[in-house]
Fold:
Amino acid sequence: MEPKQEPKVLQGLGASPGVAIGRAVCLSSHKFEVYRIPIPANDVEAEIHRLADATQQARLELDATRKRAHEQLGDELAAIFEAQSLLLADASFLNRVEQRIREEQVNAEWAVHKVGEEFLDRFESLESEHFRERGDDLRDVTRHLLRALQGIAHHELSEIGGDVIIVAHDRTPSEAVRLGRQRVVAFATETGGPTSHTAIIARDMNIPLVTGLEGVTALVTDDDPVIVDGTEGTVILHPQDDQLAGYARQRQEQGEEERRLLATSPLPCVSRDGVAVELMANIDLPEELDDAGRFGAAGIGLYRSEFLYIERSPELPTEYEHVSTYRRLLDTMSPQPVLIRTFDLGGRKLAREVMATDEENPVLGLRGIRLTLARPEIFKIQLRALFRAGVGRNLWVMLPMVSAREEILEFRAFADNVMEELDSEGIEFTRDFKLGIMIEVPAAAMIADVLAREVDFFSIGTNDLIQYSLAVDRNNEHVSYLYQPLHPAILRMIRFVLDCARDSDVEVSMCGEMAGDRRYTPLLLGMGLRRLSVSPRSIPEIKNQIRSLEIRELEEATVRCLGMGSAEEIERCMQTHLARNVPVA
Ligand code: PEP
Ligand code: MG
Structure:
């Protein structure tokens, strides 16, 4: 019997709450997810055949590339591919892969990946520049092989037995969606901030996530037993029996609490002194509509339509797919409103893959409305679908990342052309929808009075508003301590936006993660917000909070808090003056 390993507690940042217990699967590559999948002894020969087929395919690909390089780029560059072809023909590499498949009875992808690492270590330990350069060739060859293998019927994560905890350097939002639909019960990653899109997806899918665990991928081996506590931000490797029992209890209590909150869904969302508040749902995937309904959402306050593109990548969704998705959202929530945000690709969300852009600083680049206006041939398809799907339905169209009035005017002109086109084709569509913008760029917040004249509604996106105002990357765990929703600069902007919206009769909501954190609910309501859009699973908790508040009482105290000069002072002021209403963090 193997000796039992000592438990090890790692502290990171809790980015999606809840507790999960499972076995680790380490994902070691950013581009390729390589899982270690045990295979039965009688499948070993078939696996070695897969390897041989993939090797043949990779060779053909490399030869074709070498020929093209030779014709177009000359001998010197073609020599790189020549070197890679030689590596692929090198018996020592492939024999070693085969040996690992036989001895460890594992899938070919895993064996290629591990042998690639072994050889790389050897190359890198050599002093010679020549060998270090061969390291890059080896990486490329490994990638070719993995790509070829993945094209040939391959093993899926779902084949691994038991509950899976993904341990990785980081995960993109699209990977989180895909993994979340499989047997994954938690994520533990080295990088990423609590308001990153990956964290938002994890929360929406009810999967605990701990980020900021530096070096975790080197500490964990596949199949290690792991506990992830996304509420406290801790990860326990090799937990002892009493720890396992304690967390299993906690998980059970979590389930009971959820059931208790769910039972409150039919209750009206009204404060103790009778002020009605609309609690809507943020969703990224149509399957979250179930949760929105179950938890009693008063409509969809943010549908991130970019996930439609992320899900279809590398293809673009067709007009038909857009129309049917939007109709499903609108019909399910009818007669309540559905705010569909036009695609906010860019930043870290797949612009490169979908739009073939490659930017040095994508978060400040061609993102949101900028990207849509720059690629009218793609945007047109989405708009045609929105106007078609909106017929007889409560459609609100929302533009992301607006920073200037001209963008709204340009959108309107473009939308008019799209409608004219639909009209000339005799296709039924609607002109009857509300147009709004996200207020998530500080410039937009500061000219909210100007923008209010152009639109029907605002939705305050605190995730980006905080990122851009405080110069704090929302994905960077090293600066997450500076990511302060209570920073006076943020609260002043929110206040100004609310004032402008009220003066111009523009409807206003908040859909950033700040709206879904019950610690801020008294302050937000005290500032005058009456419509919040939050992750469906946060609805019961926020509603409970609202039902316990005396809003009139909050207003005066809020004015005091807003007069403070720092996030710490505002927090203290909240504790003192909103004491009865502010829950302990
Ligand atoms: C926001 O920025 O607050 C927002 C809701 O949009 P996203 O999180 O998709 O950037
Ligand atoms: Mg945003």
In short: The first helix runs from residue 44 to 73. The chain has three domains: 8-33+157-258, 41-150, 264-577.
